[in-house]
Design brief:
single chain; alpha/beta; GMP Synthetase, Chain A, domain 3; 3 domains; 14-stranded mixed beta sheet; 4-stranded parallel beta sheet; 20 helices; 18% strand; globular
């Protein structure tokens, strides 16, 4: 049976298991399974999943640590007809709860060490492979009789959330089969390959790695640890794994590649048997790609891949060997090449009209790899997925990324669409990358105050041993850009924040520090340049620490002095013995200090809250709530101390005015803190 005749993802693997059952399928440290062993284990588990109600178009979450049992579970879900939902069991609680609530899987496949945590996040059964090993071993080793169509959903990829709330992209069997055929043709995969798998389970490249290996009859070598997530991992260990396991094909993200080569180059080390190095997940500049190509030599093929989970992982690729001549300024270019076989790329303007060659447009992907859309998100699916005008039977996906088609027919990745600031952000980023002291940089639009336009902020990471000053970097830009194209701030960082998939986490980029001197007039609607710490940072009002301290002291003293006027006798301590009289005096001063802090925050706290980017109404309510939480202790206790304890109407009124209002104020603050804020780089 040819690949074209196989109509399910697990069917590819089953063909290889029938062809060579004794061939090595997966290796993870000392553990390994042959194709025949992996097939039998997956079949037994599939019978158990069917008994639990799993079937076509129904999801099952897979939440296991790295090892052969992870592949067993994935294949078993597919053999049972279900769609697997990759869920990293060590991930943040919020992510686990979100995925399990949104996907609502029939069952969660895991092991005992993660059972309690997962069971706390869902009412669905948690099937632990280790504790049920004996029962599973008694089940049939042949596949259950389940009819699966190529149009059925095979998996649900929850996006990394680097540009918004994580969404479940539904990918059908036919989407992954199409992607596999493209990889097979471009990568020239054979059953002699040994393919390294370093990606985390929840990242779509994890699926790409195992499908490329197990669909071809090759060996999948799983790294024991996730080198993207484990910041303490020594890259020496990764290099030893590549050499020791005779890896021939590996895909890594840009961030991990930089770390790996920072380890290799000073020692003059190479990659052994590797013949294909595929790099993706983030913008990879051509100068880096060419530099690595020169270092490793012509025997190692370097490919820059571009794709999204919504379109079955990879859609285009660039091989620098196809360049006729090296372009000028490779440090300013990120080339993503040409579509994988069968894919199409459209560059469209905001109205959906194709742009002219050489012009910048939104990258839109079409072809058999584009998935069904987002789970439980019909509105968002309708906004991002369309029928391909040339092939109405196929879907087109709007990525939100920008690109342009060069005269040589090669697609260039420009940027994530940042709105009106995109062109300026691209120019700033490329110029900063050309600075000799800068290793990495990112430019984002940051929403701080609803009344002002988003600010353009450049974040830079220095080369090891260098520490570029923010002012020096800003001067570097000022010599090459007009004033209205300069960023509002340049912020040095020890490293860019990353998602669990290794991508830039725009939501985690820090806010620039406030100015410490009066702000000059600046660009229309935008924050002016200047300031300390981060060059070109706007003012947080003109409220210096001295202003805050002065107002707090003034209001505290006024509150303390006016207590006897409003509540005569409430602070009379003549009959209270020491040291309790002193304790109560401290309490009364603390209450007055709360009033002073509350009043100062009411007057000065607006800009500080505005930096969180929450809605104006919620921000105003929170400002009042914080004031009430701080200031109300002063009148509250004084009212209670001067009220007859048998006066129930007054006591009840005080409870409503203060206690319940305090609870409501706290609830407003909680809502303010947990509400999803606008993300940098819209």
């Amino acid at each position: 049976m040819t690949t074209a005749q196989v109509h399910t993802v697990h069917g590819l693997f089953e063909e290889q298991a029938r062809r060579a059952p004794g061939a090595q399928a997966v290796v993870c440290g000392a553990e390994q399974l042959t194709y025949g062993e992996l097939d039998a284990r997956a079949n037994r588990l599939a019978h158990r999943l069917v008994a639990l109600g799993l079937g076509p178009e129904r999801p099952a979450a897979v939440a296991l640590g790295r090892g052969p049992e992870l592949l067993t579970a994935v294949l078993a879900v597919l053999k049972a007809g279900g769609a697997y939902v990759p869920l990293e069991p060590t991930g943040p609680d919020a992510v686990i709860r979100h995925v399990l609530a949104d996907a609502d899987p029939v069952v969660v496949v895991s092991d005992e060490v993660h059972r309690v945590r997962l069971a706390d996040a869902t009412a669905r059964p948690v099937l632990c492979l280790d504790t049920e090993a004996d029962a599973l071993a008694a089940l049939p080793s042949t596949a259950p009789d389940v009819r699966v169509r190529d149009a059925d959903v095979a998996c649900v990829f929850y996006t990394s959330g680097s540009t918004g709330v994580s969404k479940g992209a539904q990918i059908e069997h036919r989407n992954l089969l199409h992607a596999y055929r493209g990889w097979q043709e471009v990568y020239r995969l054979t059953d002699a390959d040994r393919i390294l798998q370093t990606a985390t389970l929840e990242f779509d490249v994890f699926t790409a790695d195992w499908l490329r290996a197990l669909g071809t009859g090759a060996t999948l070598v799983m790294a024991r640890r996730n080198f993207t997530l484990d910041r303490t991992a020594e890259l020496r260990e990764l290099h030893e794994l590549v050499i020791g396991e005779r890896i021939t094909v590996m895909e890594v993200n840009v961030h991990l590649l930089r770390r790996l080569f920072a380890h290799l180059q000073p020692l003059g080390l190479e990659l052994g048997s590797v013949r294909l190095l595929s790099v993706g997940a983030e913008k990879w500049y051509l100068d880096e790609q060419l530099r690595i190509q020169r270092y490793l030599g012509p025997d190692v093929r370097h490919i820059n891949v571009y794709g999204v989970a919504e379109a079955a992982v990879d859609s285009t690729y660039f091989d620098p060997a196809t360049l006729a001549d090296p372009p000028e300024h490779p440090e300013r270019l990120s080339l993503i090449g040409v579509p994988f076989p069968g894919n199409r790329v459209h560059l469209l303007d905001p109205q959906g009209v194709p742009v002219a060659p050489g012009e910048c447009g939104e990258i839109c992907l079409s072809g058999p790899g584009v998935g069904r859309g987002y789970l439980n998100q019909p509105k968002l699916t309708a906004e991002r997925f369309f029928a391909d005008p040339a092939r109405p039977d196929l879907r087109l996906y709007r990525t939100g990324d920008l690109g342009r088609l060069r005269p040589d027919g090669i697609l260039e990745f420009v940027s994530r669409d940042l709105g009106p600031e995109t062109a300026a952000a691209v120019r700033v980023e490329t110029l900063l990358r050309g600075h000799p002291d800068v290793r990495e940089c990112a430019v984002a639009t940051v929403d701080l105050e609803p009344a002002l336009e988003p600010a353009l902020v450049a974040y830079v990471v220095a080369d090891p041993g260098r520490a570029p000053d923010a002012w020096a970097l800003r001067s570097h830009l000022a010599e090459r850009l007009p004033a209205d194209a300069l960023p509002d701030a340049v912020v040095p960082l020890p490293g860019l924040p990353r998602t669990r998939a290794g991508k830039l986490d725009r939501a985690a980029l820090p806010l620039p520090a406030p100015r410490t001197e009066p702000a000059p007039s600046g660009k229309s609607g935008r924050r002016p340049s200047g300031g300390k710490g981060a060059a070109g940072v706007w003012a947080d009002g003109d409220n210096t620490p001295g202003v805050w301290v002065g107002l707090v002291v003034l209001f505290t003293v006024l509150a303390r002095l006016s207590t006897s006027t409003f509540w005569p006798g409430s602070t009379d301590l003549r009959l209270v013995p020491e040291p309790w009289a002193t304790v109560f005096q401290l309490l009364y001063w603390a209450e007055s200090l709360g009033a002073g802090l509350g009043l100062a925050f009411l007057l000065l706290g607006g800009p500080a809250l505005g930096r969180f980017g929450r809605p104006r109404g919620l921000t105003v309510l929170t400002r009042l709530a914080v004031f009430w939480l701080l200031a109300s202790w002063w009148p509250q206790d004084n009212f209670y101390r001067t009220t007859d304890p048998r006066n129930w109407s007054t006591q009840g009124t005080l409870v409503v005015l203060f206690n319940i209002a305090l609870i409501a104020s706290a609830a407003v603050v909680v809502r303010f803190l947990v509400r999803q804020a606008p993300r940098p780089g819209r």
